[in-house]
Amino acid sequence: MQINATHKDSGFSRSVIVDFGGVFVPGDTMEKMIDKFGERPIVDAAIRSFVIAIQGHIRLAIGQALDKKEPLPTNESLQLWAGSWKPGTRKARLSDVEKTKKAIDNLTDEQRAELIREYNEALQAE
Fold first, then answer.
1. Digits of tens for pLDDT over the chain (126 positions)?
2. How many folded domains does the chain comprise?
3. Same domain (yes/no): 71, 100
4. Same structural domain for residues 51 and 18?
5. 31 — phi, psi (to 5°)?
6. Whether the Cβ atoms of residue 15 and residue 9 lie closer than 8 Å to each other
7. Domain limits for position 19
8. Do the beta carbons of residue 29 and residue 21 sit within 8 Å?
9. Quick count: other Cβ atoms within 10 Å of Cβ 33?
């Protein structure tokens, strides 16, 4: 499998190829990876991946509350979510059109009217 990484500040990018024991071939199982690396490193890597996924959800929930100027999610509400979380299950991402509609829905009537006015002016200028 080819793994790419880009340095955030410089933009430099590099790639390596790593053999994970063939588990990325459809129909293969974890046994090949365990045979290659041992069970403990596989479990540890899975747990690290799960922690990162859960941290990402928590950060997203906090960011969304801040963006909407809503109360921050409580530890209890996040715990309820975490208690039923399963790896590999994410909400489908919104399309650009869906995001735009959602953003427009969150505007005040005055903001929406201004947006429509500016949009109509831009159309007329074309």
1. 677 888 777 788 888 777 766 656 666 678 888 888 899 998 999 899 999 888 988 888 888 888 889 888 888 888 888 888 888 776 667 778 888 888 888 889 999 999 999 999 999 988
2. 3
3. no
4. no
5. -55, -40
6. no
7. 1-28
8. no
9. 19
Q: Is 5 among the domain residues?
A: yes
Tokens describing residue 121? 């002016």
Residues 98 and 79 in one domain: no
Which pTM was predicted? 0.57
Q: What DSSP string runs through 2-54? A: EEEEE-TTT--EEEEE---TTTTSTT--HHHHHHHH-HHHHHHHHHHHHHHHH
Do residues 78 and 61 touch, judged by C-beta distance below 8 A? yes
